[in-house]
Amino acid sequence: MKMIASATLAVIGLLVVTTAAAAPTPLPSNINDTDRVFSPDLYQASCPQLPGIVRSAVRATLRRDVQITAGLLRIFFHACLPQLGAERKRVY
């Protein structure tokens, strides 16, 4: 039971970190909202330590419970693939 509680807390923690990382940053007034493109370095200026924070949290969680990997993959693909599909519709 303790293992399940620990895994649940780890997943909740990772969700909080990824949600905070996905929150939009304020745009300068000279940039149109439609011009914003998500990229791996989107938060480089506002939070340069973010990749290290996320990486260490994920590694620590995987060391405690390797079964969390499946949940992380589900979260990643659930969040990213619909955005990719929406982006394709705009291009065509």
Automatic annotation (TrEMBL):
GO terms for molecular function: heme binding; metal ion binding; peroxidase activity. PROSITE patterns: PEROXIDASE_2 (PS00436), PEROXIDASE_4 (PS50873). Keywords: Calcium, Heme, Iron, Metal-binding, Oxidoreductase, Peroxidase, Signal. The keyword Signal applies. Gene3D superfamilies: 1.10.520.10. The keyword Oxidoreductase applies. InterPro entries: Haem_peroxidase, Haem_peroxidase_sf, Peroxidases_AS. GO terms for biological process: response to oxidative stress. Residues 37-81 form the Plant heme peroxidase family profile domain. Residues 1-22 form the signal peptide. This is Plant heme peroxidase family profile domain-containing protein. It comes from Eragrostis curvula.
